[in-house]
Write a structure and sequence with these properties.
Layout: H1 12-26, H2 33-37, H3 43-48, H4 54-67, H5 72-96, H6 100-107, H7 110-143, H8 147-162, H9 169-194, H10 198-206, H11 213-224, H12 229-240, H13 248-285, H14 295-306, H15 308-341, H16 347-363, H17 368-382, H18 384-394, H19 397-400, H20 407-433
Helix pairs in contact: 4-11, 4-13, 4-17, 5-10, 5-12, 5-13, 5-18, 6-15, 7-8, 7-15, 7-16, 7-17, 8-15, 8-16, 9-13, 9-15, 11-20, 12-15, 12-18, 14-15, 15-16, 18-20
């Protein structure tokens, strides 16, 4: 939530959270570790929704069905990369009181700013399309309603959730965190039901392997869909005005707590992504159903293999992932427009505008899973325009002050950015030009 969205009169929960955080930053008294962490948890949980949105379902399921546990290491590696990128984004907001879009507007020439804004708006629309479709598909699979009705229900639900912003940041953080918890619980139960081969899970989580060109393409898809441009912009906005401190001692303490927030939230997202692949490996790959490539096929095939419970856990996790990520995607769109242009439009208008492409796609009868995959192509185009500015700004001491990147951090983040960009380009080439 940006400063523009923070109520003039903070809610009791917000005021209590901020005061508790400041007391902890000012005190050396030893308290329960969880109690010390609680006021700082929240921003990374909202950003982490981008890592478990419906766009991840198809890729992870296809990878597990076709190659078993082999590509688990890609999920582990990509989430470690994402942790660093999201930590840098959070640090930018903490250190400067400005988000990434605002820094772009302040430091780049106007033509560049306009170009970046257009690119990020396209990214926001593609993101919203994937998340909106995922939630509509969840309604369809669970309750049998037509996709169009599911889309309308998704729009209503996301508007209700976004309405919590008027009560301050803590209310929205609590609801989104609870939804992330529901998704994680669904996949925990799914993992218990499907009884994976744990020695294979452990081995393939740390030993890199490929098996032909198709496995490389799927690995690129997993990594390319992991770091989302809108999550990078959003995370810096979530921390920029949440807890404001300026002296170096409290800044560094606050930053350490935000690192913990990222580690916990992204760790849960990593578990969910791994559990998706493990479920597909332990059910579809194990039984020879290696061509399960769509979300609908996975949902319908789970019941005869694992029972009704597994099917419902899968459908519920898809629905909640779609609803939460659709809400967060709309919030990110607000941040992008406000940051680049200093223009604010009511959230319900933005929701209606970004909903239009999804309604058109559903009305046209296009395949939902294929549309989800193609939306990732647009996200791939936008990724360099989020990562590169982030690295540029966080390495500058005149911008970051006490929290400027160490040289090793800049080098590592630049390498990660290059890897992610290269694999996205490779993925785009395979999607657009391979037969």
């Amino acid at each position: 939530m940006t400063r523009e969205n923070i109520p003039d009169r903070p809610s009791t929960a917000d005021a209590r959270t901020v005061q508790s955080a400041l007391d902890i930053l000012d005190s050396d008294r030893k308290k329960n570790r969880l109690a010390r962490l609680m006021p700082f948890l929240g921003p990374a949980f909202i950003a982490s929704v981008a890592y478990i949105d419906p766009g991840n379902f198809a890729t992870n399921i296809q990878a597990g069905a076709e190659f078993g546990y082999m590509l688990l290491w890609v999920i582990v590696a990509s989430n470690l990369m994402a942790m660093l990128i999201q930590t840098m984004s959070a640090k930018l907001g903490i250190a400067t009181g400005m988000n990434l879009a605002e820094h772009c507007r302040a430091h780049f020439p106007r033509p560049v700013v306009i170009g970046l804004w257009i690119m990020m708006e396209l990214v926001a629309m593609a993101t919203d399309l994937a998340e909106f479709l995922g939630a509509a598909l969840g309604f369809n699979l669970l309750f049998g309603v037509p996709l169009l009705v599911g889309a309308i229900l998704t729009a209503i639900a996301s508007l209700v959730i976004l309405g919590l912003e008027r009560y301050g940041f803590r209310s929205l953080e609590a609801v989104i965190t609870a939804m992330v918890g529901v998704i994680a619980l669904c996949y925990l139960l799914e993992t218990i039901i499907d009884k994976p081969e744990w020695h294979q899970v452990l081995y393939h989580s740390f030993v890199p392997q490929f098996s032909g060109a198709e496995s490389v393409i799927l690995a690129s898809g997993i990594l390319g869909a992991t770091v989302m441009p809108h999550a990078i912009f959003l995370h810096s906005a979530l921390t920029q005005g949440r807890i404001v401190v300026r002296d170096s001692v409290r800044l560094r303490k606050l930053y350490r707590y935000e690192i913990a927030d990222v580690f916990i939230a992204m760790g849960i997202a990593s578990f969910v992504n791994a559990a998706m692949l493990i479920m597909a490996a332990a059910t579809f790959y194990k039984t020879g159903l290696t061509h399960i490539a769509t979300i609908e096929e996975a949902y319908r095939t789970l019941e005869p293999l694992l029972g009704t419970g597994a099917k419902w856990f899968f459908g519920l996790s898809l629905l909640v992932a779609g609803l939460s990520s659709s809400t967060v995607g709309t919030s990110a769109g607000q941040v992008i427009m406000q940051g680049f242009l200093k223009r604010h439009i009511p959230v319900w208008i933005r929701r209606m505008v970004t909903m239009a492409p999804s309604i058109l796609v559903i009305g046209a009868g296009l395949d939902p899973t294929r549309t989800l995959v193609m939306s990732q192509v647009v996200l791939s185009f936008g990724l360099p325009f989020a990562i590169v500015p982030l690295v540029m700004f966080t390495r500058r001491s005149d911008i970051m002050g006490e929290l400027v990147n160490r040289a090793a951090t800049t080098v590592l983040s630049a390498i990660i950015a290059a890897i992610i960009i290269a694999l996205n380009i490779y993925l785009l080439y395979q999607i657009l030009f391979s037969g």
